[in-house]
Each structure stands twice: as C-alpha cells, then as structure tokens.
Amino acid sequence: MERIEKKLKNEMKTSDNMPYPDFDKMWSSIQQDELKITETELLVVPPRKRKKYALVAGLAIALMATPVYAALNYDWSDILSYREGIQTALEEGLGQKIEQSITKQDITLTVHTAFIDDNRTILLYTLKPSASWKGDQIGFDRIGLKDEDGNFIEGDYVHQWNKELGVFQGYFETSWVAQEKIADTQLTIENIYFIGDGKQSIDYDPTNNEAQVFPIHKDGIDHVTLQAFEQGEGRVVLQSAVTFSDADTKNKWVRIIAKNPMNKPIQEAKSPVFGTPEDTGAYINQQIFTTDSIRAKDTSFELSYMHNLGVIKDTWHIDMKLSKKQLKNSSFRDVLNIPLENVPGGTKVHEMRVTPTQIRLLLTSEEKYTHIPYTKYQLAIGEKLLDGGRWVVENNPYQTELRFEVAGLSMDTLASEPITLIAKHRVDLVDGDAQPIHLTNISAKPQSKTSTIGGYPITWTYYTKDNNLYVESFSPDAKFGGVTQTYYVHRKERNYGTPLIISLLGDDNNMQIDEYENFKDKELDIYIWKYTTNDPNAEQHVPLTIGK
Questions:
Q1: Confidence at residue 81, expressed as pLDDT on a 0 to 100 scale
Q2: DSSP labels for 338-363?
C-alpha cells in the first residue's frame, strides 16, 4: 500500500498527468467592495494525453479526504501571474498549509495556504458553489481578516473560475503582518453575490460630438451618457458616464462595444480606463478608438456589463493560527539612507526589506506628497532583472514604496548578489506660471490660439457645448507631458476645470480637456495649475548593496 501511495503522489506532481484547466480569459480583479476588470488574453492549451491508472476504491476515497493531497490538484500559476514571488515560494515548498473549510448554503470556502512575512500576508483560497449556481462571477459585500482583538483588516483579492474543477481560485492580500510569530486570525467573507453577463444595444451616433443620454433602467443601471472627444492623430476618446440605480451593484465595470458591419468587435487603439468614480455618483470610462474605425458606416454599439443575479446572505469565516516563522527566518532588512539624485523633496531610499516572496524599498521625503519623477522601476540582482511598481503608503504623506515580486530567485542569491535600483522614464511635475491665456469671443464655434510655458508651445482650442465651456490643450512637442489642470480666478478664488482625459504618467498623448460647467461669459483668463514634462530615455542607477 505504501508503494502505491508513493507512486500516486509522484503522478500527481507530474504536470503531464494533472488535469490542468483551460481558460479563455482571466478578467476579474476585485478590490474591496468594487469590481474592477482587466482582460488578459491567455493561451488555450490543448488537453494533454493522460494515462489511466487503476486505483483501489479505498485509496481514492482516502485521497479525497486528505487535504494535503487534494491541494496538489490546484495549479495557481494563472492567478499568481502578477504575484510571481508567491508562485516561486510555492514551487520551493514554502508557505503554511492551512487546508481548512467551511460550508454554508452549499458554498464551500477553503483556505489552502498562507504566506506571512515582514512585507505582507497572502492567503490562497477556493470557493466551491453548488452545481446549480448560475452566473459567471461572484462578488462580496466584504472580505478581510480579523485579528485576535476583532479588528477588521481590509485587503485586495483576485479570483478566477476553474471550469474543470468547478471552483473559484483566488488570493487575498493585505499589507498587514502579525507582530508575533503566531497570530490568531480569521478570514471572513460576508454575503456572496452571483454576477452574470448583460448586454443592451444603444443607438449611439459617433459622428455627433454632443453628449448623448441612453436610459437603461434595468440590471441596476439607470442611464449611460456617451460623449466623443477628438484626441488628434486620428483617434477619438469615447467617454461613458454610467449612473447606477441599485446601490448594491457589486460591479461598476461597464464598457461600450463598438462593432463593425460584420458584427465583429472593433479593437481599441489604446488600453481603456474603467470605473473612475465621479462626485455625481456616476462612474467614468474612457475608451480610445481610431476615428476611421468608430465612424465607419454601419458601425453599431452595445452596452456590455455584469450584473447581480442573486445573493446569499451569510457569513463564512475560518479561524487560523498564522505563523510568520518560516518566511521570517529567511528574511532580512537593511537601513540604507541613499539619496536619489535630482529627485525633489530630499528623497532617499531609506530601507530595503527582503523576504522570499517580495522586496520592498521604502522611500522617504522631507516634503509631503513629493512627486517621484519616474514611471518604471527595476531591481538588478546579479544578472536578473525584477520589474516593480510604485505604491502610496497609507496615512503617511512622507513615504512611498517600490515593490518587486521575487521571481525565480533564492534567498541565498538575494543575500549574496549586488542589488541595484534602476529608475526609468522620467516625468516631472512642474508648477504653472502667472501668465494667463486670454480666451475671447467664446461661443459654440471652436477657436484656437497658442501660448508657451517653459519653452514648450501649446495650442488651445475652446468652445461651448450644452452650456459648458471646454478648453483643450495640446503640444506638438513630445517632451511636453501635458497640462494637468487649468483654472480661472473669480473674486480672488480659484475655480478649477474638471479634466476629462484620464491619462497615465508617461502617456504618449499630451492632450487634455477641461470642462467648466454652466459657463455664460464671452471672455475668460485661464491659468495653468501644473504641467508635466516627458523624458522616456531618462535612467538612473542606484547601487543598494555590493553583494558578498
């Protein structure tokens, strides 16, 4: 019996014999109570040939009842594609086995593995609904940890459907870490919503730049307002403002699908931005298309969204004793205090925290909310490059974090190889000046004029529409990053325009549109609040350690 059991374990560890699921797409990325979606194209792998083994019934039943064996069936690589440090730790056999489950109303929550170190806490979990459930996704009223004092700890979570195994695989992540080596904690999920697809054809006219309103009045959506803005270079920004009638709607992701005369979706020219909340309660989306494609004859439009199909009101919770001993024993931190050259605010790399799954650099500045003028970050560790990102430190305006997933590196390598921070693509944030841009003969007819700031030429186009004033700014100089916001002064108070173009730092488009509501005057002096400059080739290398 021992020989058969050993053979079974080996077969389960062999990728050619494991039932890997095929995914057409992974799209759910959920943060706290708001559903945000990122579409990712995945390679669909044809089913592998699988050998058949005759197993005695008793052993099969034992396998199903043994959590450690059952956990080997799960492949977490897809869900951890942006958490490669956790995937590396899994492959090295690290992580605390939990394997605890709770079932309520035919939905089973299982926590499989925990990772807790000086940087973060991550739990790998599955949710198995009953066979009769309907929908494509699920959402929660609340998910988080409770510490031993009952304090609720929020975090981020991501999950995706594993069709072959009939479960949602996911991870919950929080920057909270236990102060002691052993911590009594509880994973809590409150109220599970079933979410499904919804579609609605809309009679949108892409040749009309006026705001067009489309009542929906179903599936939690009240109405959608569409408006097109010329972006230049043969592109159009299609902005949709979605107003919801159901406050319990768990998904704020609604997109416009443009279709060609062959009823095929038209590909967006750039990555879209979804779900930006507005003061009015609406959520703003921006999708960029080429002008020729979206305004071609017989182009049709469709509202695509996810909506609640039902809810199970209950609470699922699993008590755990999380231990940071395993990962902490392989972790270290160095106080560096290395200044960053030509970075404002007296910014320096204060500390480096290294764990088996993630490296974090803590940047400190002498001034609040200092702009760190780089958009891309890497760590060179020996000959290996790790890509990273910038994170805001909650409740501390003097600090910024750079986080890097440890992919394919051992702790021996991290401790012995030299480490260098590489910062790329510089974008500086610059204050505007006291020189106004004087707008005259303001009317529905677009008019243009030019000005300069910091030696950069700017073309201004302004016009009224729907009783609002729109002020567009654009520069032919690619080193000009764009005007962030404009304002005018009335009775010694600044009145800021509302930026309509959602741009990322380092974006190759420097056009901006500011909206001033209920505007009736014929002349106006506007001022530039701030603008950015763009240097994609800028690069700074900062040695952090020299290695051993």
A1: 94
A2: EEPTT-GGG-EEEEEEE-SSEEEEEE
